[in-house]
Structure formats: structure tokens, C-alpha cells
Amino acid sequence: MKEGRPRSFYVLAIFFAAYTLFLYGPMIAIYVLSFQGPQGGLTFPMNGVSTFWIAKLFQGTGIVDLGAAFRRSLLLGIIVMIVTVVLSVAAGMAFRRKFKAQSILFYSAIASLIVPSIITSLGISLEFRIIDDVIKGTFNENFETSMGLLTSGLGAHLTWTLPFGLLIMFAIFNRFDPRLEEAARDLGATPWQAFRHVVLPIILPSVIGIGLFGFTLSWDELARSSQAIGAVNTLPLDLQGLTTTVTNPDIYALGTVISAVSFTVIALALGTIHMLNKRQAAKGSDAGKGLV
Amino acid sequence: MDTSEDILQQASPDLVRGSETARRSKAARLSPSFISWLQAGPMMLVFLAFFLIPLVFVVIVSFWDYNEYQLLPAFSGRGYTDTFEGCIAQLPDLCTIAKTYLKTLKLCFLVWVITLFIGFWVAYFLAFHVKSKTWQMGLSLLCTIPFWTSNVIRMIAWIPLLGRNGLVNSGLVKTGLINHPVEWLLFSEFSVVLALVHLFTFFMVVPIFNSMVRIDKSLIEAAYDAGATGFQTLVNVIIPLAKPGIVIGSIFVITIVMGDFITIGVMGGQQIAAAGKIIETRVNALQFPAAAANAVILLVITFLIITMMSRIVDIKKEL
């Protein structure tokens, strides 16, 4: 390997750089355009630089009630994140040994991931419509609907985030050394102590990764929400609604604000993962360091 | 959070058997299979309530009747006959549904070929050319971050570039390559394919990369020592070993594009018909049985494609 890099390296490095530019270029364009001057339009060149459109968004004078949709999406995202982490870690622990219905759960998760979102969304909406009809018919004629952000909406988002959580848990336990747990057991740890003090600290960085997936996938979710969210909209649904009507940069401003939340969450999660990994490297083991 | 902690408390039955303290605790009285149910049950319930039962309802409702404003729970094939209207009468011309599916399959094929090409070489670069683990992590992360941001925003992002007065058009006019801005850049099949590739190449990169990093490097050296050219090594060693990743990535991309209605809607200016869009249109018209019938058709076709592809590789073994 001392001969230097082959020519294919440089060709593919340029290809990779072009792909990265393709990924990020357009996004950066709209972040820049959201700082258009008050007279600015939807395209370059910039007509002055200002925070006019972003400020307009927060004044609530725009087309959508940003504040309410923002709070709804944030609430849903946080709940989805918590539920995804707890259920994925629990189910991941179950998959470490054989149990009945194991393959049913596995194939449900895979199917939930690849069945087109519009079908899942339609199914949930039909399910809730039928539930509503039953309630209206048998209990209460004035019943409105059981569909909503935290019923059908939460369920729809979980069908999308849980498969990712489960697959990440598989990846974790594929490289997990069970002897660490055996050692804890030999030292007299209860199952909970072994989980809390041995397993959890080791898998914690990846568990934060599950949380990151849970929140960001919910925060940006669209296809599954479309039919199943009920009367109120989430932020991405409002944004999608704007794409057909809007002619000035407040759509970019909204996009920039939504992305800012995503990037804050990504940075927080990655920072925490990095910190935990460093701590593990520093304190995790003194093997091979000799006697101190 | 009590319940979840309880579940986790029963973490491992092996522990229970091994430890004297634990033997006397509550955990010892629970059988391992009961503990598994406590751990996996909640997730199973979510899939049951929000995925499996809804799918059953889709199938049932597809056989219901409907009028202008409500569902009629009586058996009827109207959802299907409405969908296939004119398919026999109009022969040899294609009916709407057949045309729509052909168009969807065409988009699907284009996106599949392009994402496979890009995904393969990006994964190849990351797996074989990037030697340091830190760089590999960093560059993988660079590919993943956009996946954690909003799809709609990533679609809208093309507007200032491809629009009538966008960067691409004004650039082309300035350089004198064209006299007038071209219209087909945005709200066209071109922009739909571009946006789908932009959004979903990630689903190709990850599984192919996973397959490639598992390839034993000594196999490649062996091929090289045996006199294989770089191209022969690629075709006879790397591609066969990366096949599971290629198939899984392809399944992801194909099923996403088959059911897509948002990208096709936004980037096609709501003018391009597609399998997913029919369902949306029917729902908006409150024709739920027809929507459900279309969902069943889409499900069957998607399932056939996946079955064909999973013949090539055992998915469960690869994860």
C-alpha cells in the first residue's frame, strides 16, 4: 500500500464530491434565499439581505399559523422519540433469545417499512373512521372523531420509526459481547442491575441514535401523516400545502426554520454520542494499560 | 415509565438462573417466554393496531359500496370496476389505470437505475478507498444528515435552481447555449426523477456499503494475485458479494417510488399521474372503497416485485 493511491481513487473522490454537492447544494440555496430582502423573489439573484421573511413568519401574519403547527410537530416528535426508544430497546432485548412470534414481529417491522406509506396511512384513516362510526352508532350520536395528533397521528409515525429503531438494535447486539453481562451476573447483579449498569451504558450511544431517528423522522414525516393526522396539520403538511400557492420567499423561510430545528437536534445527538464514546474510551477499560 | 422499567427489569432469563439473589426475586417466578412477551409485546401491539389491522381494513373496505358522500358497508366490486373502467372496452388503447401504472413503472425504473449507479459507486468509494475509520464515519455521516432533514424542503430546494428564472436557465442563457429559458426543467418528469434520486439514493448507499465493508479484503487481493484485472475483480468478486446490499437497496427504492405521491405531486406540479396519486385523489373525493381498491392493487404489485427480488437473496440472513 506504499505505492500511493490508484487513479480510480481520484475519479471516485471527484464522483463522491459531486454527489455531496448534489445533496447539499440545493438545500443551501434555499437557506440563503430565505434571507432575501423584502422585495426579493423566489429565485436568485438576491434582492438585498434581511431577516424580513423569517420575522414575518414568527409574527403570524403569514399564511399558516406557524406557532401552533410548530408546537404540534414538536410535541408529536418528542413523544414519538420517547416511545420509539423505549419500545425498540425493549424489543431489541427480547430478540437476544428465541421466543415465539419472533419472526412475526420481525416481518411486521420490515413490512411496515416497505409497504407504501400511502397504504398504511389510508388504512389507519379507514380504521379510525370505522371506530368513529361504531362509537356514534352505539354510544354517543354527537361524538366527533377519535382521529387526532396523538391517536392516529402518533400510530402512523410509529409504524415508520419503530422499524428503524429495531434494526438499529439488531446492529447493536450483533457486536455486543455477552460476556460482559455474564461477568455482571457472576458478581451477583440482578437482571435490572446488569441492564442498568452494564448493558445500557455500553449501548447508550446507539440508543441516542435511535432517539435521533425517532425525532427527525417524525418531525419531517409527511406521507403517513397525510391521511391519518385528522383535522390539524403538522408543520411539514403545512409546508407542502404552501408549495402550490406561494409566490414569495416565506416558504423558504419556513423551510429554513424547520431545518434549523432538525440540525439542532442532529448536532445535539451527535455531540452527545461523541462525548459518550470518548468517555467510554477513556474510562471504559484499563486493559492493556499495565499496572498503575 | 414504570411499565417499561418493569419490562427491562426482566432483562435476561440467563441472569435469573445464574444468580442466587435474583432467584428469590420476582423475576425468577416469570418464565422466559413471558418476559420476552413483556419486552416485545408493546411493539407488536403498535404494529397490530396501526399497521396490520389497518391493512385488513383496506382489503375489506375495497369491497364495500359507496356514494357521493359516504361509505356503504355492503359487498360490492365497484371500487375495482370503477378503477378498471374501460380497460376492456377501449382495447387496443390502454385505459387510464394501465397508462398510470406504466408511467409509474417507467419512473420507478429510471430512478432505480440512476440510484443504483450512484449508490454503488458512492458505497464503493466509502468501503474500499477511504482507509481511515474516522474518515469513513465522517463521510457516511455526510451522506446521512440530509436523510434526517425534511423531504419537502429538499424538493422545494430545486425551485430556485430549475425554475423559469432559476440558476440553471439563467446560466444557460448567459453562456449562449439556449436563447430562451427551457420549461421542462421544473414541474416535469425530469424534475420528478431528479428529486427522487436526490431524496432516495441514501437507501441504496447504506445497504450496499454494509455488504461491501463485510467483504474480506484478502479475497480481492487473491483475485489480484491470480491475475484478475480491476474490472474482472469488480464483476466476479465484488458485485456478487455486494448483491445482498444491492437487492435490499433496490427493494427500498422501488417500493418508495411505487407508492410515492408527494414527490411526484410537488415536483410534477400536480400534473403527473402515478399509482400513489390515484389513491390520494380518490381519498380527496371521499371515494374510500375506490381508494382502498387501488391500494390493494398497488400492494399486490409491490409484493410481486419484492417476492421476485427476494428470490435472489435471503433478507433475514443479511440483517
Automatic annotation (TrEMBL), chain B:
Residues 101-309 form the ABC transmembrane type-1 domain. One of its GO terms (biological process) is transmembrane transport. PROSITE patterns: ABC_TM1. InterPro entries: MetI-like, MetI-like_sf. The chain crosses the membrane at residues 43-64, 109-127, 139-161, 184-209, 288-309. Keywords: Cell membrane, Membrane, Transmembrane, Transmembrane helix, Transport. Belongs to the binding-protein-dependent transport system permease family. CysTW subfamily. It comes from Bradyrhizobium canariense. The keyword Signal does not apply. CDD domains: TM_PBP2. It is a multi-pass membrane protein. One of its GO terms (cellular component) is plasma membrane. It is found in: Cell membrane. This is ABC transporter permease. The keyword Transmembrane helix applies.
